[in-house]
Amino acid sequence: MIKPAEFKRRRRQLIQMMGPGAVAILPAAPEVVRNRDVHYPYRPDSDFYYLTGFPEPEAIAVLIPGRKPAEYVLFCRERDEKRERWDGPRAGQEGAVRDYGADDSFPIADVEEILPGLLEQCTRVFYAMGSNPDLDKRLADWVNQIRRKARAGVHGPLEFVALDHYLHEMRLYKSAGEAALMRHAARITAAAHARLMQTCRPGMHEYELEAEFGHECATRGARFQAYPAIVGGGCNACVLHYVDNRDELRDGDLVLVDAGCEYGYYASDITRTFPVNGQFSPAQRAVYELVLAAQEAAIAKARPGNHWNDPHDAAVRTITKGLVDLGLLKGTVAKLIKDGSYTKFYMHRTGHWLGMDVHDVGDYKVDGAWRELEPGMVMTVEPGIYIPPGMRGVPKKYWGIGVRIEDDVLITKEGHEVLTRDAPKDVADIEALMQAR
Ligand code: GLY
Ligand code: MN
Ligand code: MN
After folding, report:
1. CATH class of 173-435
2. Active-site pick, 253, 386, 407, 416
3. DSSP code string of 148-213
4. CA–centroid distance, residue 271 to ligand 2 (Å)
5. Which ligand 1 atom is the nearest neighbour of the CA of 352?
6. What is the pTM of this model?
7. What is the dotted CATH code of the domain comprising 4-171?
8. Domain residue ranges of the chain, discontinuous segments joined by +
9. What is the DSSP letter of 426?
10. pLDDT tens digits, residue range 10-59?
C-alpha cells in the first residue's frame, strides 16, 4: 500500500505548484445506489484518493498553500457509535489528523459554515469543474456570496484553475511505490489468465471462465476487478466491448479474455486469446501469430524518447503487411495504411495509459504533438484483428476469428518492463499449458 509519507509528498508537490493565494477543493466520490437500500461497493475517486489516501465517502479535502496553522484541511464524517455498529469504523476528525495527515479536520456538516470563509482569503481556486454537479453549484453560490461583499473590501476568488489537469500530470508518472502495486496487480492477473487456460474446456460457458478469473484474483487478495471482464468465445470476440459472457464455449473456437484485477486501487489490464480445445487451427494460428508479431513490434517501441504513437504505428504497419501476406488486404502497405483500409480488421488504438483508472489520466498530446514516453509512465499495448462471420472478400476459414493480445508496460530508464510477462502468449506455451490439463 502507498505510505502516508507518499500522500504527503504528493500534497506538497501540488501545494508548490499552486503557489500562494490559491485554494484547492477536492470532493470524495459519492456513494451510488444500485437498487433501493443497496449501494455499489464504494470505490474512492482516484484523484481524491491519490492526494489524501482517505477511503471514506462524504469528505472534502482543502489545500491552502502557506495558510497557518493548517494548509491541509479535511472535512469528513463525524464519529457515530450507532452508525459505526452498522457500517464499520469512521476516522472522524481525530483520525483524519492522526492517521491521514490532515493539519486540521472539521465535520462535513460544517462545510457550509467554514469553507466560504477560507475561500474569501484566496484569489485562485483549483477545482475540477463538472465532475460533481452538487458541489459545483454550492461553490458557485459561495463565490457569489463573497462577491456581494465587494463593497466591504472582500475580493475573494478571481480565477478558477483546472485542478484535475495538475493532478493528472502527477498521476501519469508512477513512483516506485505505485509501480510495485501495479506489478503486484499484474502478477495476480497474469496468474488468473494462466489459470483460465488450464481450466477451459469445450462445453463450458463464458461466465464460468469469468467466475474462475474472479475467484483466482480474489483468493490472491484482489477482490475487485478494474473493469468488467470480457469473455468472448468465437465471434463474440469480434464485439469489442462484449460483456454478456453468457454463451457456450465451442470446440474449434477461440476465446478472447480481456480481464484485470485492481489491487491497492491500481489497475491491471490483460487480454489473452486461446483455443477452447487447447489447439490452434492453422487459420487461427496465422491470425494469432500476426497479432503477436504486431504486439511485439509495438512493445519494442515503448521506450523513453519515443512518442506515444510510435507503438501504434509499429502495430499498424505489422498488421497491414501481415494482412497483405495472408491475402486479406490487397494493395501496397503504404497506401492501405494511408487510406485506413486496415481499420476493417483493426479499428482501435494500440493502448492507453494505465494506473489507478484502467483508462488512466494524462494527456496523449502536448502542444499538438504526440507526447514523449518517459520513465514512470505505464501503458497498455493491445493490438488485435477481428473478422466477424460473413466478412466479404475473406475466406470462410477466417470467419469468427477475433484475436487481441494485451500487456501492461512500464517505461523505465533503460527501456521498459512488461509487468504482465507471466501471462503465457506464445503459441507453444499456450498449447503446452493447455495440453497439460
Ligand atoms: N479492458 C479495457 C481495455 O482494454 O481498454
Ligand atoms: Mn483490456
Ligand atoms: Mn486496455
Report:
1. alpha beta
2. 386
3. TTGGGT-----EEE-HHHHHHHHHHS--HHHHHHHHHHHHHHHHHHHHHHHH--TT-BHHHHHHHH
4. 6
5. 5
6. 0.96
7. 3.40.350.10
8. 4-171, 173-435
9. S
10. 999 999 999 999 999 999 999 999 999 999 999 999 999 999 999 999 99
